[in-house]
């Protein structure tokens, strides 16, 4: 039976424990893992950091860039995605990333791959994109709501502990019905979903946590999701 698996974490920074965790989820000895840095405009330093982290893990790293042309790249985005065992999506501008993916059909390719058992994940924009919605800094002036791809039909809040406006705004949006109940992650904490249900939380240290956040009797409830600290 195919399992649909997703690992999301609050920060878009690449870390060995989270990438290694995703590699292990594939069940492959040396899995093919692809970084998609669309949200950062295919930033080269970000890509270099991914490759640096991957040197410490038994995997084959790949990068899917969208700022290309037909002369430089002969494979379609769908063909690249279908060869992978796991996909890691980076941080940056969520709104622009989703717009590009829709224009290029990458969103459809990712959904099919997810349903076929390819492990998905990422941090920051790379965590928000899989949910039905959340707040983003992708527009000028203030945080605003963006609609995600709805792989998981819940809302999401990233940077829960590191950006002061995130937590209260998330609570307000849920109380007002602008966002559904959902999941929040501190920067160094992650949630592993199997078939759209929480399997566990994992963190880089005990201070960073993950939560299920919902409204009850007009008040916000934060349910701590117990975490395993990754070594």
Describe the protein in words.
This protein has a single domain, classed as Class I glutamine amidotransferase (GATase) domain (Rossmann fold, 3-Layer(aba) Sandwich). The mean pLDDT is 96. The protein has helices at 16-25, 44-54, 77-82, 94-104, 106-115, 125-128, 166-175; strands at 5-9, 32-36, 60-63, 86-89, 119-123, 131-136, 144-146, 152-157, 182-185, 189-194, 197-203, 210-216, 219-225, 227-229. The protein is globular. Strands 3-2-4-5-1-10-11-14 form an eight-stranded mixed β-sheet, sandwiched between helices. It has a six-stranded mixed β-sheet with strand order 7-6-8-9-12-13. By secondary structure, the protein is α/β, with parallel strands linked by helices. Helices cover 27% and strands 31% of the residues. The protein contains seven helices and 14 strands. Helix 7 (166-175) links the parallel strand 8 (152-157) and strand 9 (182-185).
